[in-house]
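As a warm-up, study this chain.
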Amino acid sequence: MSDGQNTKKYDFDSIGEPVEVVLSAVKPLAEGFEHPFGIKTPLEIGHGEDSFLQMHYSIAKQVSDNFRNMIATNHGERKCLTDFGANLLPLAFDLTTENADKVAARRIKKTTEKYMPFIHLVAFEPFREEPMPQYLAKSGVRITYSVPTLGLENQIIEVVIYSGA
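Now compare it with the structure written out below.
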């Protein structure tokens, strides 16, 4: 424990480089090329300006990709974030029943509020594809959402869940 004589107190504003310095260090791309926002999933080999992997050059597509991946993730699949994702796999055989639909919608809302609170959920539509073999379920959810801060309205993602008993 310190006696207070040798302690220092720092203001967070005095740490790091100013934004202007960081931005001035960013090298402009060749004319006609844009800066990527992130890696496109599922992973694909890139070509042209993409380099090694295909990239997203639209923030709307990157948000959609991240949101779809979060909804498709089940609890325990993400290291150090064991509650990340909507955890829909346990509901795969029961989706389109009223009880399972309510549980799925609550899970999607909870994970979205925690990990992507800038997304406004608009509509939830579960579906099941028939016919499937007796011990295989192909079901999923279609979600309509908006991102008001980006001016994105009525965006739709679809997550398909395959499950075998």
